[in-house]
Amino acid sequence: MSNALSNSVIESEEHRALRAAVAALGKRYGREYFTTVVAEGKHTDELWQDAAKAGYLGVNLPEEYGGGGAGITELSLILEELGAAGCPLLMLVVSPAICGTVIARFGTEEQKRTWLPGLADGSRKMAFGITEPDAGSNSHRITTTARKESGGDWILNGRKIFVSGVDIADATLIVGRTEDARTGKLKPCLFIVPREAPGFGRSPVAMELAAPEKQFELTLDDVRLPADALVGDEDAGLLQLFAGLNPERIMTAAFALGMGRYALARAVDYARTRQVWKEPIGAHQALAHPLAQCHVELELAGLMMRKAALLYDAGDDMAAGEAANMAKYAAAEAAVHTVDQAVHTLGGNGLTQEYGLASLITAARVARIAPVSREMILNFISHQSLGLPKSY
Three-class SS of residue 167? Predict the structure, then answer.
């Protein structure tokens, strides 16, 4: 089977055209733009706006609210190609993929009209707060609570950590817990908290990570919200939460794949042209074979990511959950391995600012850690897929 035919089996002509268009946009900006933005403490506003004009930011959101009417398949493809060009947009994971998906699937009509058009055209952003200092991402241990008052308002109290882009987001989708009137037990619920809400504080977390998007710790001190700040059904919060977490894992896989592809391309180009002895260093199997292995790992992870996205877009949340976790695991491992091998291929040059690979050493670890560690994914797979007893 020819390469062109095999690609057409895996991806449609429309998807290949979308990849090419996004890759062209990413190439116009490139890694130098990205690193300059980071060095100057700015944000990727120009790229974000151009991606919005092209319809990329809301490609997964419903057409009736200004979106593209496609799915996570297309959105993950966009993030992957921007990453492969050296300029990934991390907020794609958060704003349209998590928050946009949750609101589109479970939000009220008013919430959809208020938020989705802005998320789609790039004029508004939304952050996502689930992780807590003590509970991590364990939704059963979240201590942020929401109390409903007699007048219908909600009062939120709690803390969140490692929340991306709060400073540039118009609101944050906060995961809290409310008391079930029937059982007295706490259950997860999602609330839209405006950035300037009284009692809603944020402080930056100093990170050894070169990224335009800053990380924040949030405090919610008697934050009063109207009744319509609650997203969806109070009794279906867990379902709504996981409807957003599966796209998050798929998009994290896309983020990792793009990073890995960028690093591999730089390493291959260097190995093809760098000459120390008679032949370019890429002729030596000690370098050629590890790079070939990285290519294999990235390709395999890409296939699992596309499977997960297709299952999610088809509405099979259960199967998508398993595949999304596998895709995130495989892509993160492939990215870490590839970045390490790319730096090693360049030797001392791999640690210079000129070649731009050293900063990826830290960035690649993000996909291993967030939004869930590889160990927790293996726990999920061993329990859910293999039927082994829980260890926790």
Answer: helix
